[in-house]
Each structure stands twice: as structure tokens, then as C-alpha cells.
Amino acid sequence: MCVKGLCLLTVLSGLAASGVLQVSGMHVYTSGDVEAVNGTDVRLKCTFQSSASINPNSIVISWSFRPLKPGREESVFHYQQKPYPPLEGIFRKRVSWAGDVMGRDASIILQQVKFTYNGTYICQVKNPPDVHGTVGEIRLRVVTTASFSELLLLALSIGGGIAAVVILLIIFVSCRRCKKKTLRQLEGNEEAPHRERKDPTVW
């Protein structure tokens, strides 16, 4: 015979090990490090998984900003039934909603980023009763020009587009030439019998 508390602990441990008892919680996922060129728009991607079913009327999404230099944390964006961009601060008129609550997407877009936007962005999601769990963090680095890897990707995409256009032009020109050649051959075959006919009175 075992002590009640010890028996209960043993049963709970067994259920947890078997997967019957699962600890609920909100899990938020972000892209980590992001680089953006000064003056351009950048998407801060944030997705989440909740153990509770998504309720669009009660879910709350909040974004905050922690600068690189010592300073206070600033609110960037808030969502509760509808988007609430900031009415003041450095992000006023510079943030737009890019997420989909039912699609478990809490992303936002920063417009015309500035060097003062360098820092860490925190994405937090609450879906009552699932209000505890991890938060997502994105470290944004605003640069003067794109990095070599980004320039390489851009060059490859542009080069690929140009190559595709050139190939299409070559195919088009080749098809036209083949068509003209075929027409000439057909016309030649039709004219050939007329040339072979001779006047029987002429020797």
C-alpha cells in the first residue's frame, strides 16, 4: 500500500510519459536574424501554434521593440479583433498588418526602415485560455546596401529571367524559320510539275 501523494505522482508521471497528459502552451516561431536595406520594406515573420482552438474574437497579438542602445522597450503593433498600428513613436505610420489569425500567422511589415530600427522585435501571442508559452524574437539589422548573398540571389533571379526570355525568343524565331522553310518547300513542289510540262509541238 502506497502513500496517496506518492501514488498520484506516479500515476501522473506515467500518463505524461505515455503522452496521455500533455502540458499545454503557446509556441511562437520567428525567423531569428533579418537584414534589410535602409529605406526599404521588410516583413517580420511570426507564426504560432496553440493547444487551444483559435478564437478570432479573443486572440491577442502584440509586437514590441528593444533598441540596440540602452533605452526603453517600445510598442510596435497590437492586434485584437482588428489591427491597431501605433499612433505615436518612431513606428507611427510605418507598420502594417501582414498576418492571418486563422492561418496562425502574426507577421507584420515595417515600411521604409531606418537605422534607428536596428534592434530586437518581440512577437507575443495569447489565445485564451492558452496565454502562457514562448515569445518570438527577431534581430533586425538595417544596412546601407544589400549583403553579397542577397546581391547574388538578386543577380541570379534577374539572370534567370533574362535567360528565360532569350530562350523563348530563340524558340519563337526558330519556329518562324521552320514555318517559312516548310511553306517554301510546299510552293516549290506545287510549281515543279508546271515547269516539267512541255509543248508537244516544240522540238
Oligomeric state as shown? single chain
The poorly predicted ranges are 1-23
Q: What would the principal axes of the Cα set say about the shape?
A: elongated
State the domain count.
2
How many H/I helices?
2
Overall mean pLDDT stands at: 80
- Class from helix and strand fractions: alpha+beta
| Rounded Rg | 33 Å
The percentage helix is 25-40%
CATH evolutionary superfamily of the largest domain: Immunoglobulins
Report the portion of residues in β strands.
Answer: 25-35%
Characterize the main sheet: 6 strands, mixed
Domain Ig-like: 39-144
Membrane topology: Single-pass type I membrane protein
Keywords: Disulfide bond, Glycoprotein, Immunoglobulin domain, Membrane, Signal, Transmembrane, Transmembrane helix
Main location: membrane
